[in-house]
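step: validate -> pass
step: tokenize input -> pass
step: predict -> running
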Amino acid sequence: MKNLIFLFAIALSFSASSVPAQEVKHDLRSMDFLAGCWEMNVPGRKVVISEQWMAPAGDAMLGMNRALTDGKMTGFEYLRIIQKGDSLYYIALPSENDSPTSFKLKSLTKNSVLFENLGHDFPQTISYVTTGPNTLMAAVEGLGADRPKRRRIEYPMVRVKCS
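step: predict -> pass
step: emit ->
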């Protein structure tokens, strides 16, 4: 009888391992940790980077950011996170580009998200991680056409009142 149970357990484990993994559905509402206004202030360099995200609605989140240096705008970006089927896409249109770039969801937890586009020059990944209700680490990472080494740029932000 023990041998029969053992053989049944082995057969069951083989059949379970041969079942293809199902793709996990990702819901835009899982991104609500990002909603609100965020800011990185570097007084020594006179740099302020602000980012604002609307709450998820209508299969999209809309966002924007702005960089100021010494009180003058040095860049801005229009952002969207959209639901397409079972996945999410981060679409960025920085001020220096004529067309948007899309990054597909790579991973998502209750307090972090990673988007990826390995075909893009720089960055190839964009991530957001929150360690509490008022802190957010945004980061871009990848290889640049002019730089053979992988680089990572982090933007530690705090929640601020939306104005």
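step: describe -> The radius of gyration is 21 Å.
step: cleanup -> pass
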